[in-house]
Every structure is written in C-alpha cells, then in structure tokens.
Amino acid sequence: MTADADAAEAGAPEEGAGRSKKKLLIFGGAGLVLLAAVGGGAYYFLMGGGESVAPDGTAPDAAVEQRPAVFFDLPEMTVNLSSEGRATYLRVRISLEVSDREMVQKIEPYLPRILDAFQVYLRELRPADLEGSSGLFRLKEELLRRINTAVYPARVEGVLFKEILVQ
C-alpha cells in the first residue's frame, strides 16, 4: 500500500501543475486581450477616431480660410491695486481683437464706457490675483466679458495684453 500511496501522491502534483499552467495561460491571455482593447480604445479617442463629419453630414473642408483679424488699441491705463500697506500700481496696455473695421467704428463711441468698466474692475484687484498664467487668463476672460457687456450689440473677439506691469 505504501507504493500505491507514493504513486498517488506523485501523480497528484503533476495534475495540479497542469491545471495551474492552464489557469495561468487563460488569465494571461485574457489580460493581453483586455490590454489590447484598452490600448485600441485609447488610440481611437486620442488620435481623433478618423475623419470628422460636420453636423450636416458632409466632410469638412481641408483648408479653412482664416479671416484677417483687426486690432483696436486702447489707451494705456495705470491704476492702483487694492492692497494693504504699500501702494501697488498696475500699468496695462490692451489691444482688442474684432472681426472687421466696421466693428471698430461701432466700438469707438463706447470707449469711455469701456475704460470706466476696466478701471473699476482693475482697481478692485489685489496683486495676488495677477500671479501666474491662470491669474492673467482669468483677468483676460473677465475683461472680455465686461467689454462685450459695455458694447452690446457689437462684439469683441478677444482681449490681448500688450504690456502688463505690476509695481
């Protein structure tokens, strides 16, 4: 009986090893398939997923004509910022981007209103509000919102900083 028991014990690990190799191959294969699917999906989304289609069902033109921009320079502004202790000043030169020359003619009569809106907003800023690119981006977005409110129904496309000095 001891010989049969030894043979049974010797055969048992061979069957278990065969099963664990099968499991390893199955899980490894499933992992590779999952990895390939995730990689393919990521490639599809990151690379644009092929040709885009316009909302009307047609393919977009390969070369989109870019219209020339028209810029309107505002006068240089110097304001004192809201700060405790030592006075801090902001000097800024701004240029407005508009669609065409007609828009400049529509905006010019509103120049006092634009400058007033800018002065009131800029005087409430603290020097910390202007730190970093995110601070300047928020400033640009707020000035654009205020100018479009001041010149409505005319529209300004963008606010461009020509010079910013905090002193």
What does this structure look like?
InterPro entries: FliL (IPR005503). It is a single-pass membrane protein. This is Flagellar protein FliL. This protein has 167 residues and is α+β, with helices and mostly antiparallel strands. The chain has two domains: 1-65; 70-166, 2-Layer Sandwich (Tetrahydropterin Synthase, Chain A), CATH 3.30.479.30. The chain is 50% helix and 17% strand. It has helices at residues 2-46, 101-107, 111-123, 132-150, and strands at residues 70-73, 77-81, 88-98, 158-166. Strands 1, 2, 3 and 4 form a four-stranded antiparallel beta sheet that branches. A hairpin with a 6-residue loop joins strand 2 and strand 3. Helix 3 (111-123) runs antiparallel to helix 4 (132-150). The longest helix has 45 residues, at 2-46. The relative contact order is 0.12. The mean pLDDT is 82.
Short description:
The protein has 167 residues and is α+β, with helices and mostly antiparallel strands. It has four helices and four strands; from the N terminus they run αβββαααβ.
Identify the CATH architecture of the largest domain: 2-Layer Sandwich
Q: What is the rounded distance between the termini?
A: 98 Å
The count of β-strands is 4
Q: What is the alpha-carbon Rg in Å?
A: 34 Å
CATH H-tier superfamily of the largest domain: Band 7 domain
SSE layout and pairing:
Blueprint: H1 2-46, E1 70-73, E2 77-81, E3 88-98, H2 101-107, H3 111-123, H4 132-150, E4 158-166
Antiparallel strand pairs: 1-3, 2-3, 3-4
Subcellular location: Cell inner membrane; Cell membrane
Function: Controls the rotational direction of flagella during chemotaxis.
Organism: Stappia indica
